[in-house]
Write a structure and sequence with these properties.
mainly alpha, 3-stranded antiparallel sheet
Length: 231
């Protein structure tokens, strides 16, 4: 698989050559290689925050570079940085679409689509179950719990407290929209919820900023309470 090949070379710090990529693409699809590479590049960008760049014009050699800091202001939390982003953001997306509690079987179904399988060591994350149920849970990005009254026991994932604090619903919805080549507005119920979340975050930021002003300017706080829903 081309995506796996690119990730392998990235972790090993090995050059990525077009000739080597063509070797793993079936000959009947080689005419479609430019489109196959484009789709793989999109996935690398959206899921892992990695950009495929040609080393030199017409060199047919490439490298992967992290674009996690592409905002330029250092505002991205560790959740949006490589490698956590590659598994956490899709997880938060499926949980969000399922109204904040996603059955474990649904989560693995989504991860399988990204080439991440339970019990199969991943080139980036190592053992996926350990990474999800221990690392991401301990970091409070996810909550993993037994479904109440389930017999036999079933488990589900929820957003953790740190995810709620650091990651806006709109960012996750925008990610889902890009992955599906659509618009956040095509998820109307979730879009409305994301807008409310944006407004609450803006109001909280305004309140914090107002709280840092001197008492002499306290009466001006009311003028800072309204911000746009969208960034």
């Amino acid at each position: 698989m081309l995506l796996q090949f690119l990730l392998n070379n990235y972790t090993r710090n090995e050059p990525i050559r077009k000739a080597d990529m063509l070797k793993i693409v079936h000959k009947r699809y080689r005419e479609q290689f430019p489109e196959i590479l484009r789709k793989a590049s999109v996935s690398l960008d959206l899921v892992f925050g990695l950009e495929l760049k040609e080393i030199k014009p017409n060199s047919q050699s490439y490298t992967l570079v992290s674009n996690s800091d592409d905002t330029g202001d250092g505002s991205l939390s560790s959740a949006w940085q490589f490698p956590t982003r590659g598994i956490l953001i899709p997880l938060l997306g499926v949980i969000f679409l399922r109204h904040y509690s996603a059955p474990e079987e649904d989560v693995w179904e989504i991860l399988n689509m990204w080439g991440i399988y339970e019990g199969q060591r991943h080139v980036i994350f190592g053992e996926p179950r350990k990474f999800i149920t221990q690392y991401l849970v301990n970091e409070k990005y996810l909550e993993y719990r037994q479904v109440p009254n389930s017999d036999p026991p079933r488990f589900e994932f929820l957003w953790g407290s740190r995810a709620h604090a650091e990651i806006s619903k709109m960012k996750v919805l925008e990610f889902l929209a890009k992955i599906n080549d659509t618009s956040p507005r095509d998820f109307p119920c979730h879009y409305e919820e994301a807008l409310r979340d944006e407004e609450e975050r803006a109001q909280a930021t305004a309140a914090t900023m107002a709280g840092t002003t001197s008492k002499s300017t306290g009466d001006s706080r009311a003028t800072c309470s309204h911000y746009s829903h969208l960034e």
